[in-house]
Amino acid sequence: MANNSVGNTGRVLWAGLRALLVLTVVCGVLYPLAVTGIAQLAFPGKANGSEIESGGRVVGSELIGQTYNLPLKDGEETAAPDLKWFQPRPSNGLGANSVNTRYQLILSGATNRSGDNEDLITWVKDAKAAVIKDNSTASYTVKPSDVPADAVTSSGSGLDPHISPAYAKVQVHRIAEKNHLTVARVDELVADHTDGRVLGFIGEPRVNVLKLNIALKELTRG
């Protein structure tokens, strides 16, 4: 009786081990290799992170936002934005300044404050004041009503690479002045890089900031 019990247990354990080995090979090796191979053949760009190149090198991904800041100075914790470039929407932050443009991948996430939270209200007011100050020029003044929500709040992930056409429009006069371009030419640049709704009805029109800044760089070089 004891020998039969041990034998049955051994057969069950051996069957379980074989199943584990087979599933490990199929699910852990063959399936990932097959999916990776199909993705590389059918969608190589998306499979490799939707990378964007400029000047012969990868400068980012069209799926992840990034900063366009001046070099960090001694004593500064947060670099100032480089105002010759279009700026992204605020990203998720830390500490007292939760509305910023750090775009640290490990810290992705929304601000996570309720609409009546006093800290959030203060951050948004400060961010709006900064948008008005940074984007007003000698010939153009940004009004508080001109500042859209995405200019002062982060996206759900905090890493959104897009801004609204309204936020891009707020920045047009500054970009024109800083880069010695006409407002009409910068307006045209924004229009050329504005994507419409998916299938005509899903989502909202949007502008990829990295692609827009690459086009701006090429324009100023020309």
Explain this structure.
It is built from 6 helices and 7 strands; from the N terminus they run H-H-E-E-E-E-H-E-H-H-E-E-H. The strands form 3 sheets. It has a 3-stranded antiparallel beta sheet. It has a two-stranded antiparallel ribbon with strand order 1-2. A hairpin with a 2-residue loop joins strand 3 and strand 4. Helix 4 runs antiparallel to helix 5. The relative contact order is 0.11. About 4% of the residues have low confidence.
Give a summary of the structure in a few sentences:
The protein has 6 helices and 7 strands. It is mainly alpha-helical. The protein has a 3-stranded antiparallel beta sheet with strand order 5-7-6.
Write out key terms for the chains shown.
222 residues; two-stranded antiparallel ribbon; three-stranded antiparallel sheet
